[in-house]
Amino acid sequence: FKGASGGVIPWVKLFNDTAIAVDQLGVRNGSVAIWLDAWHKDLPEFLQLKTNNGDDRKKAHDVFPGLCYPDLFWKLAENDIDSNWYMMCPHEIRLIKGYSLEDSYGEEWEKRYYECVEDERISKRVMTVKEIVRLIIKSAAETGTPFAFYRDTVNKMNPNKHKGMIYSSNLCTEIMQNMSAMDIQKSEITDENGDTIIVERTKPGDFVVCNLSSVVLGNVDVKNDEELGYVVETQIRAMDNVIDLNYYSVPFAEVTNKKYRAIGLGTSGYHHMLANNLIHWTEDEHKEFADDVYERINYHAIKASMTISKEKGRYSCFEGSDWD
């Protein structure tokens, strides 16, 4: 056990202290989201990171905890809430089973999860689904966290699943891209003086970065499809240009950004848009109106991407993707 940690909480506290240490000279604190699998052994303590009661040495009030849920958890919550939920150590699973449980999703994940549950060599922490849901609700009511990331759904919808897997998200939970670790390779060379020099080469993983922009719906006549299309297509082109023109303080971010050319088009001013169009929040026409607006935004965004790809060429991972 030499050099081993007793869990994730001490490391979360380090991230917490780092975030508040880098405060732009008192102007703005850093912000960090910490994501944990809902089957992780430290889940109960993780859900109490920001609550105001309990041992303060196990608190991290300045980070934003988030949970990565498998579909199975909420299926049990809906259909068999008194059933047991088994929490395990991912490192122990890797040593005993030879695979990482977090490296799968959907049916494959469920199969592996129950394999681990039935393996007596793997130590487990057991609570009912109901008890865990209560902890989640308590934390959400007191702190607004944990954030939620539905890994099965995200990976099933991932257009680049042929190139990797999505494990978690960012602080605002709107960026979802393939993630992988960097590989640092070391070698030794001897110079003309006979001195040994250690050379490190870094193979960049998928270091997620995404360019974001929002359509201010209250300032657009969304019923005018020509106007909406012009705004959306302009923003898509602007974000794509940022990929090429941006300053990258981290070189690995540039590699990933140019590999996938990921962009994120959001919206703001939603209620302003409803008021402009005399749409009542509780009426059925509200749902139909929203479906129509976002369907057309999606159409114009994809159309703009197609136009740009004809001009600049397709992104390097296009072949084999859902766009292919």
From TrEMBL:
Pfam families with a match to the protein in the record: Ribonuc_red_lgC
Keywords, ordered alphabetically: Oxidoreductase
Protein family: Belongs to the ribonucleoside diphosphate reductase large chain family.
Keyword Lipid metabolism on entry: no
Domain Ribonucleotide reductase large subunit C-terminal as annotated: residue spans: 2-323
Protein's UniProt keywords contain Iron: no
Protein name: Ribonucleoside-diphosphate reductase subunit alpha
Superkingdom of origin organism: Bacteria
Any single Gene Ontology cellular-component annotation: ribonucleoside-diphosphate reductase complex
UniProt-listed GO biological process terms: deoxyribonucleotide biosynthetic process
A molecular-function term among this protein's GO annotations: ribonucleoside-diphosphate reductase activity, thioredoxin disulfide as acceptor
EC annotation from Swiss-Prot or TrEMBL: 1.17.4.1
